[in-house]
Design a protein that fits this description.
Largest sheet: 5 strands, parallel
Distance between the termini: 19 Å
Strand order of the largest sheet: 3-6-9-1-10
Low-confidence stretches: none
Helix content: 40-55%
Number of helices: 14
CATH superfamily of the largest domain: P-loop containing nucleotide triphosphate hydrolases
Mean pLDDT: 85
Number of strands: 13
Length: 329
């Protein structure tokens, strides 16, 4: 097994070279926000959709735009508004007078990378249309179903502050996002660089430095990364502790958790764990990989009771307690 892992390490070291190219090019435009950039790359490698949440002005949209510019692929930005219709997203049938029949006019969803900007500004009909595309990698227009090109990734943003005129995402849809990333304010020295760049207008545009084939091949390699049975059991212990906390020595959480994380959390922890190891240029997953990504995968999957909200407990508090309690292999 050791020789296999050593071989895999060599392959990964060679094939992950494009990550350096990507991050260097992104760094020409985006100051700081390394955590957000890393999580976006994690979603791209693990084939998982990403939800970015943060107050306005934290470069969420600009970062996604920049990442898409560095990859030679088809990108579409969709601004979600209260008057958006499903047809504006997936497309519709249009009558052709010349041919005397209906023709399909495909919508902006037919791309590889989708930026769903302010996703919670549109009503449930639009969100459900996006849901089919996210899960089934296909859309239905009229009586025809169309497969979406691979790779297909949705990167959505939402603003947690202003809730007037918003439509909170249903739990079933939030669960479809592999990662929910909380975007925070930049450090003072980073903000100084942003201030200087933006006030003088001296900032670069990101160029395409990675071919889509490199991403597709990297995804295949990610699936081969070795995960020991102890790591698999560690993942299951973390997820099951959100469902049966008393069994894992956390009886104080029993009345605070309404619903624990779904099996999708276990699957995503394993997939993202492998992708995280790839980003670190390793052929095997270590417990620290799982701990590093657990919060982003679990924070939106642990549903709290009214009692927890009354005690001003957050899902992050619950996940932190679980991670501190579960024994690391």
């Amino acid at each position: 097994m050791n020789s296999t892992i050593e071989d895999l390490n060599k392959i990964i070291y060679e094939k992950s070279e494009f990550i350096t190219r990507l991050t260097d090019e992104i760094g020409k435009v985006i100051v700081g926000q390394k955590y957000m950039v890393e999580r976006i790359l994690l979603g791209i490698l693990a084939d998982g959709h990403i939800l970015l949440e943060g107050v306005p002005g934290l470069a969420k949209t600009m970062t996604i735009n920049t990442v898409s510019n560095t990859i030679s692929t088809k990108f579409q930005r969709i601004q979600f508004t209260p008057d958006l219709l499903p047809a504006d997203l997936i497309g519709t049938l249009i009558y052709s007078q010349q041919k005397g029949e209906f023709e399909v006019k495909k919508g902006p969803i037919f791309a590889n990378l989708i930026l769903a900007d302010e996703i919670n500004r549109s009503p449930s009909k639009v969100q459900s249309a996006l849901l089919e595309a996210m899960m089934e990698r296909q859309v239905t227009i009229g009586d025809q179903t169309y497969k979406l090109d691979a790779p297909f990734l949705v990167m959505a943003t939402q603003n947690p502050v202003e809730q007037e005129g918003t439509y909170p995402l249903p739990e079933a849809q939030v669960d479809r996002f592999m990662l929910k990333v909380q975007v925070t304010y930049p450090k003072k020295e980073e903000e100084l660089l942003v201030l200087r760049r933006m006030s003088t207008g001296k900032f670069e545009q990101a160029k395409s430095v990675v071919e889509i084939d490199e991403i597709v091949k990297a995804r295949e390699i990610v699936k081969e990364i070795y995960m020991d049975e102890k790591i698999e059991n560690y993942i299951l212990d973390i997820v099951h502790a959100t469902r049966e906390p008393a069994r894992y020595g956390l009886p104080q959480l029993e009345d605070l958790i309404e619903f624990g994380a779904s099996p999708r959390a276990s699957i995503n922890l394993a997939m993202a764990g492998r992708a995280f190891a790839f980003l670190k240029r390793r052929g095997y997953v270590i417990p620290e990989d799982i701990r590093s990504i657990a919060m982003d995968i679990l924070r939106h999957r642990v549903i709290l009771t009214y009692e927890a909200e009354a005690e001003e407990m957050t899902s992050e508090d619950i996940v932190t307690q679980i991670l501190n309690k579960i024994e690391v292999p």
